[in-house]
Specification:
Blueprint (H helix, E strand, L loop, with lengths): L1 H34 L1 H12 L3 H28 L2 H21 L3 H15 L2 H12 L5 H18 L2 H10 L1 H22 L8 H14 L1 H9 L2 H13 L1 H18 L4 H29 L3 H20 L6 H15 L5 H7 L6 H29 L5 E2 L2 E2 L3 H8 L1 H13 L12
Antiparallel strand pairs: 1-2
């Protein structure tokens, strides 16, 4: 009997981690899709005869879908089975990737990219929704950091590994393998994810009844008009810009065309950017839980990230590969302070509105991808002088400097936003 009780205790101890991190594999997978253009941007520009603005638009369709469906995703996840929603969204994403890999039409490529983005709207919110049910508040920053770490591992896979795979197999076959990975993750989620602990099923039903009485519009109003949620969303969007611009699409080309690194060498820098976030996310979360302070660490991360960004922008041609890799790693580490926005929002809103409230932050973060990737491409093309190499546009150092000014300006605004935030009461962190 003691053995059974011991086994039961062990299962209860590990089950929350198994459930939440099985679901977080969806977030890992979506970050591959979100950031894969850095590895295959040159291939796509050749395959569809694209310039920088068009490439930015093609990438941004993923984020347009996110923006449209994030408010709906939050409301659905607060009201219905998280497991069923994750499985449906992941399947839609796999269909979009398969279509993108096989089409030769730019219009269809945009449509399939949009489909993948619809699925992505649910990936992070579902993980946070599950974490809020399976873990106490005092662990939320650490768990959120680990969930984001899994996503950044996906972003890292989308850099050098995906570059080497695309060079070996071609980008279309690489994306078909990517779709197969999605089906494998589907099987894991189907097998292990549960909506909530058995003892909380009645509480979950009561929460769903409360939300039904509250109504969809009022729940959106409570979440999307909460100043704390809006400030956290703005902060996350702006501190995520290095990932959105250097990690997702332009980092490799920037280093190839300004520092004259090879494609493989240049792809290492975005990989180190993600590695920094992989390590920084849990560290920031753990420190925040220990200090019971969120905002102070967010301020520190923003200031250091601003300084690192200025060095990377101004001195790429004067830095060795080792120094560039270190700077990208450090930038990823300190911008990971953005993960603290999610527990800060979860603790600043009623528990029944967790997914809807966190969707505000995700809305801003994904909106940053959609807006700033397109803006970056437009700034790059604005003064382009017509240079081509291997059917790819070649941009000057000045072109990159002009476009990359988005980063320090964004960090300055993010820093101002932190001065208006407030930490939750310590009682909420117990």
């Amino acid at each position: 009997m003691k053995t059974q009780n011991g086994a039961s205790i062990t299962n209860k101890k590990f089950l929350p981690w198994i459930v939440c991190f099985s679901a977080a594999l969806f977030f890992f997978y979506e970050f591959i899709q979100m950031n894969m253009f850095n590895a295959i941007s040159a291939d796509l520009m050749r395959a569809f005869s694209l310039h920088a603005t068009e490439l930015g638009k093609l990438s941004a369709y993923y984020f347009y879908a996110n923006l449209l469906f994030l408010p709906i995703a939050g409301a659905l996840l607060d009201r219905f089975s998280t497991r069923l929603i994750i499985l449906s969204a992941l399947l839609l994403c796999v269909i979009g990737i398969t279509g993108f890999a096989t089409t030769h039409s730019f219009v269809l490529a945009c449509i399939f990219r949009f489909m993948s983005g619809i699925g992505s709207a649910f990936c992070f919110l579902s993980s946070i929704r599950l974490a809020s049910r399976w873990f106490p508040s005092r662990q939320m920053a650490l768990v959120s950091g680990l969930i984001v770490t899994m996503a950044m591992m996906g972003g890292m896979v989308a850099q050098t590994p995906l570059t080497l795979l695309a060079q070996s197999l071609g980008w279309r076959h690489t994306l078909l393998l990517d779709a197969g990975l999605g089906l494998f993750i589907f099987t894991i989620i189907f097998s292990f994810v549960q909506d909530c602990p058995p003892e909380l099923k009645q509480e979950q039903k009561a929460s769903q009844t409360e939300l039904s009485d509250l109504g969809l519009v009022k729940s959106w109003r409570l979440a999307y008009l909460n100043p704390q949620n809006l400030l956290c969303g703005l902060y996350t969007s702006l501190t995520n810009l290095p990932i959105a611009l250097l990690g997702a699409i332009w980092g490799s080309l920037f280093l190839q065309q300004t520092a004259h690194f090879s494609a493989t060498e240049a792809s290492l820098a975005p990989s180190l950017l993600f590695l920094g976030t992989i390590i920084g996310g849990p560290v920031m979360g753990w420190l925040s839980d220990r200090m019971r302070k969120r905002v102070r660490l967010m301020v520190m991360g923003t200031i250091i990230s601003l300084l690192l960004t200025l060095i990377i922008i101004c001195l790429p041609a004067l830095l060795s590969l080792t120094t560039v890799l270190f700077l990208f790693f450090a930038l990823g580490f300190f911008t990971s302070s953005q993960v603290l926005s999610y527990p800060l929002v979860a603790e600043s809103n009623t528990k029944s509105l967790t997914a809807t409230s966190v969707s505000v932050v995700s809305f801003f973060a994904i909106g940053g991808y959609a807006v700033f990737q397109s803006l970056f491409g437009w700034l790059m093309d604005y003064n382009w002088h017509g240079s081509l190499a291997n059917q790819i546009r070649v941009y000057s150092v000045n072109d990159y400097h002009r476009a990359l000014l988005i980063l320090p300006i964004g960090f300055c605004i993010a820093l101002l936003a932190t001065f208006l935030m407030r930490d939750p009461n310590k009682a909420k962190l117990d």
